[in-house]
Amino acid sequence: MAFTVAIDGPAAAGKGTLSKALAAHLGFAHLDTGLLYRAVGAKLLLGVEPLEAAETLTAEDLAADNLRTAEVADAASKVAVIPEVRAALVDFQRAFARRDGGAVLDGRDIGTVICPEAEAKLFVTASPEVRAERRWLELRARDPKVAFDAVLADVRERDERDMNRASAPLKPAEDAVMLDTSDLGIEAALKAAIEIVEARMQALKA
Ligand code: CDP
Ligand code: CDP
């Protein structure tokens, strides 16, 4: 039976970490949909036309080791404004969402566009400063010279682009539960998310 958990929210809110742990807890499959856009963005940086890249993505593309860099994140949010690129990635995400045995997907438009019928929807947020600090700590491990202010500026710019695009903009679904993790560690955020999903499971059984 299908049970979809849709996790959306802005950059570095902790969606991926939370989704992975939640999926492990529930025994569900997990898809980080940002990776699809990052893989298309990485191809763009190599000179491949974005629609062609989206239509021909391979497992190898999704495993490229540069996908977590700031350059690729920026390119991802640029290709993500192109409606045809988004459309080319829909079927794969929908099929994943409705697979038997349950799925957790995280991204920007899972609860609004990819799977509006998702049984549980969370919108994970944190202040821009907290999110930038989290991302800075990660990026600094790859490059000690990376400046906090530059990461904060990138996060703000990407949020702006994601929220203001015409096609599938970042916004909470009407029936999403908001989870602000500004003051929550990973364990506490996971506990809150588990409670939200289990409450939905109980409600659907009743
Ligand atoms: O997927 P998204 O960009 O929303 O965030 P992430 O990559 O899961 O998390 C960004 C960083 O924040 C990771 O290094 C996490 O360890 C850290 N973090 C978190 O995910 N959740 C918290 N409540 C606190 C920190
Ligand atoms: O990890 P972080 O939250 O920083 O970014 P991500 O989830 O890997 O997504 C990278 C970019 O892909 C975002 O800034 C969005 O522009 C785009 N994206 C999207 O448009 N729709 C999704 N479902 C997932 C990502």
UniProtKB/TrEMBL annotation:
Domain Cytidylate kinase: 5-197
Localization, UniProt: Cytoplasm
Any GO BP: pyrimidine nucleotide metabolic process
Residues the record lists as binding ATP: G9, P10, A11, A12, A13, G14, K15, G16, T17
InterPro entries: Cytidylate_kin, Cytidylate_kinase_dom, P-loop_NTPase
A GO molecular-function annotation: ATP binding
Reaction(s) catalysed (UniProt annotation): CMP + ATP = CDP + ADP; dCMP + ATP = dCDP + ADP
Enzyme class: transferase
EC number, as in UniProt: 2.7.4.25
SUPFAM superfamilies given in the database record: P-loop containing nucleoside triphosphate hydrolases
GO CC terms of this entry: cytosol
This protein's record includes keyword DNA damage: no
Organism domain of life: Bacteria
Keyword annotations from UniProtKB, A to Z: ATP-binding, Cytoplasm, Kinase, Nucleotide-binding, Transferase
Family: Belongs to the cytidylate kinase family. Type 1 subfamily.
Protein name: Cytidylate kinase
Provenance organism: Seohaeicola zhoushanensis
Gene coding for it: cmk
